[in-house]
Design goal:
Its cofactor is Mg(2+). The chain has 308 residues and is an all-alpha fold. It is built from 14 helices and two strands; from the N terminus they run ααααββαααααααααα.
Length: 308
């Protein structure tokens, strides 16, 4: 498997910088139009959660997919930033004592540790609602039907049948509601919902902005699902092989809680083979785009081969 090129890493870094600037604006201390005020402690907690960390992979996927259809500028950047706000909310809530009970995220104290548990819950709530506000704003796209498709897509990816539903399955997999012995298919479903749904939508959002036809949307849906699955397998491998210092968060959590992953079912070498298979599946789905999709091909290689 080829490693990601220097030009890809430069592009990833450039997009991350642009997203950081957009998030800075969205999370400024001053009240925006239509708001009464921004409570200082709450906005500080939101900024702690969303700024100064992460590779911004989800907005990168949105922006790069939109580029396939010659769409660039504020629309894809705002859409990607909205998805990142939603992702950051999920991390804040995942870290809570009632969920994963983590003290470290991206090498820094989690929000409930840096502030307090109640503020962390409210910060997550506010990040989530801000994400939908950004998508619904005409500044994101002049076409109301496009904005509606983006809002609908993010709601489905992040809610009952997606990320939140996946988190509920994840809690059950820890044995909280009785003994839970997950089979391989159950693990794949859990991961597809909890992690894969939002990654898949990140790709689909670019297609929505690009007014893609059904053939290309379907190709990108296959790509997004394979990338999301590869991301989670790679994450499971890293959880066993990497250090907490390199990842910036606690490792070995699933093993501690007795929760099975694909590494347990397939073995370490089997999991690595599965990751390579998913990379091939994702890349093959992009055939309809030809050389124009090379950045997205490198993105799935990056996801599978990342070390931190």
């Amino acid at each position: 498997m080829m490693s990601s090129t220097g030009s890809f890493m430069t592009r990833l870094s450039d997009v991350a910088r642009d997203v950081e600037a957009c998030l800075e604006t969205l999370l400024s201390n001053e009240a925006h139009s239509g708001e009464m005020a921004r409570p200082a402690r709450l906005i500080s907690a939101m900024r702690h959660a969303a700024l100064g960390g992460g590779k911004r992979l989800r907005p990168f996927l949105t922006i790069e997919t939109a580029r396939l259809f010659s769409r660039s500028g504020a629309g894809p950047l705002r859409t990607g930033s909205a998805i990142e706000l939603l992702h950051c909310y999920s991390l804040v809530h995942d870290d809570l004592p009632s969920m994963d009970d983590d003290d470290l995220r991206r090498g820094r104290p989690t929000v409930h540790k840096a502030f307090d548990e109640a503020t962390a819950i409210l910060a997550g709530d506010a990040l989530q609602t801000l994400a939908f506000e950004v998508l619904a704003d005409p500044a994101t796209d002049a076409d109301g039907s496009v904005r509606a498709d983006l809002v609908l897509g993010l709601a489905r990816a992040s809610g009952l049948g997606g990320m939140v539903g996946g988190q509920q399955l994840d809690l059950a997999a820890e044995g909280r509601y009785g003994v839970a012995e997950l089979g391989e298919n159950e693990i794949r479903l859990l991961q597809m919902m909890k992690t894969g749904a939002l990654l898949t939508f990140s790709v689909q959002a670019g297609a929505i902005l690009g007014r893609a036809d059904q053939e290309r949307r379907q190709a990108l849906r296959i790509y997004g699902r394979a990338l999301g699955a590869a991301f989670q397998v790679a994450d499971d491998i890293l959880d066993r092989e990497a250090s907490a210092e390199s990842l910036g968060k606690r490792t070995g959590k699933d093993l501690e809680k007795g929760k099975a992953t694909l590494v347990d079912h397939l073995g370490m070498e089997g999991a690595k083979r599965e990751c390579r298979r998913l990379v091939s599946e994702a890349q093959e789905a992009l055939g309809v785009f030809g050389p124009a999709a090379e950045t997205l091909r490198e993105a799935v290689r990056f996801v599978a081969e990342r070390e931190v």
